[in-house]
Amino acid sequence: MAAYITIDDLIIEHRDLKAKVASLERELQESHQRNAELKQKVTDLKEILSDKNEEDGCEILEFFHSCSSIRRTAWKYGMDLEEMYELIPQLEDTWAGIKTASDYDECRMEVIGRQEWDAEQEESMTAAEIAIRDRTPIKEELNCLIADYKDSSLTMYEIADRYNLCIYNLFRLLKENNLIEKEIDAKGYSGFYMEYKGAGSEWDGKSDMGIL
Fold first, then answer.
1. Within a 13 Å sphere around the CA of 131, how many CA atoms are in the beta-carbon half?
2. What is the mean pLDDT of the chain?
3. What phi-psi label fits residue 113: left (phi over 0), alpha (psi between -120 and 50 degrees) or beta?
4. Is 115 helix (H, G, I), strand (E, B) or coil?
5. What is the pLDDT of residues 127-169, one digit of tens each?
6. How far apart are CA 179 and CA 162, in angstroms?
7. Which phi-psi region, left, alpha or beta, contains residue 201 (left: φ > 0; alpha: ψ -120 to 50)?
8. Are 165 and 131 in contact (CB under 8 A)?
9. What is the DSSP string of 41-78?
10. Cβ-based neighbour number of residue 202 at 10 Å
11. How far apart are the first and last CA of the chain?
């Protein structure tokens, strides 16, 4: 037999439900208030960060123009060279300023890599200049080159630049003189790979780039 519910019971139940609804509405309102306050705090923090970034940007540009060096500016603010190379034009909204740096060419070459840099330089070379870079050195010069490769701490690009050779030609000469069999056999190939490809690149320890 079902329990008998009196009017008083219904009134009490109704009152309890109204109290619960009122309590939930208060919690919801408080939650909305907390969310609004949180959103305002986030907005305030974003504005502070934006102002701080603007202040930092002004400070970076001031230091950069005082020393005229991308590398020194990167070192000063604890940033990688390639990060500073990209940041300065963003802060100034132009590449004009960074191109006035005393180390612009060397930094650009390091960032974009010698593959792209050398290709750009060769565009303005004469046929005679390119022929010199592609030559086979005379015996005495070749012996000096081989000695530098075997006995010195010079990198592949330092050797190529010392003898005014295209890097592809240097690899050819090393292979023809039995100093390497494969491209990746070259001394200091990991460092060469980064210099060839540019900042941020890393050799996987096995792949070549089809130079030979």
1. 3
2. 86
3. left
4. helix
5. 999 999 999 999 999 999 999 999 999 999 999 999 999 999 9
6. 19
7. beta
8. no
9. HHHHHHHHHHHHHHHHHHHHHHHHHHHT-HHHHHHHTT
10. 9
11. 97
pLDDT in tens, 24-78: 666 667 656 655 665 675 465 455 445 556 778 889 899 999 999 999 999 998 8
C-alpha pair distances (Å), 128 with each of 117, 172, 190: 20, 20, 32
Whole-angstrom distance, CA of residue 110 vs CA of residue 85: 10
**Stated length of the chain:** 212
The answer to whether residue 19 scores a pLDDT higher than 90 is no
Distances in Å between the Cα of 123 and the Cα atoms of 48, 126, 159, 190 are: 48, 8, 22, 27
Query: What's CA 205's distance to the chain center, in Å?
Result: 21
- The first and second tokens of residue 173, run together, are 């000469």
Q: Which of 180, 205, 185 is nearest to 194 (CA)?
A: 205
Encoding tokens for residue 168? 């592809």
Q: State the number of CA atoms in the 13 A half-sphere of 18 facing the CB.
A: 6
The residue extents of the domains of the chain are 7-108, 113-197
